[in-house]
Design a protein that fits this description.
Arc Repressor Mutant, subunit A; three-stranded antiparallel β-sheet; 7 helices; 3 strands; about 10% strand; globular; WH_DNA-bd_sf; HTH_MarR-typ
Length: about 160
């Protein structure tokens, strides 16, 4: 079976386009598909260490913020509080975090990284960076910075709107 003239020349026509051209004009459509590509790369990279993305996010938040009350950690990550408990159970069993009673409020659980959790978080961060480098390899460093800046602006606007 031979290639069509359009395929041979690299030209995409309406009949040979892999996606509906009208949808490709919608930034939210593009963002959703691109996010899925990056998400899958990150899930695969973190999964090689026997963890899921919520575990990585939890370890990274604790690395960034230090020990936090469990409910504050859930809120900062945008997790349902009940779901965070299950994520913490998994990484606590692996001795990556520890939960202790908050001395200032005995009703609260403080969550903190263990030394092993800190070491693994640093390794996972490197793995995550490598997955992003691969995922965004078609961009120059300047384009990648611009993309990150624009995406952060959208996220910040949404955070302000929700506050």
């Amino acid at each position: 079976m031979s290639e069509t003239p359009e395929a041979a020349s690299g030209v995409t026509t309406q009949d040979s386009a892999p996606r509906p051209p009208s949808l490709l004009a919608l930034p939210s459509y593009l963002a959703g598909h691109v996010a899925r590509i990056g998400h899958d790369a990150l899930v695969e990279a973190v999964g090689r260490h026997g963890l899921r993305l919520p575990h990585f996010a939890t370890l990274t938040a604790l690395s960034d913020f230090g020990p936090l009350p469990q409910h504050v950690l859930a809120d900062r990550l945008g997790f349902q509080r009940s779901h965070l408990g299950g994520y913490l159970d998994t990484i606590e069993e692996r001795a990556l975090v520890r939960r202790t009673r908050d001395r200032s409020d005995r009703r609260r659980q403080l969550v903190e990284l263990t030394d092993e959790g800190s070491r693994l978080q640093r390794r996972l961060w490197q793995v995550a960076q490598e997955s992003q480098d691969s995922f965004l390899g078609c961009f120059t460093p300047e384009e990648r910075d611009t993309l990150t800046t624009l995406l952060r602006r959208l996220l910040d606007a949404d955070d302000r709107a929700r506050a």
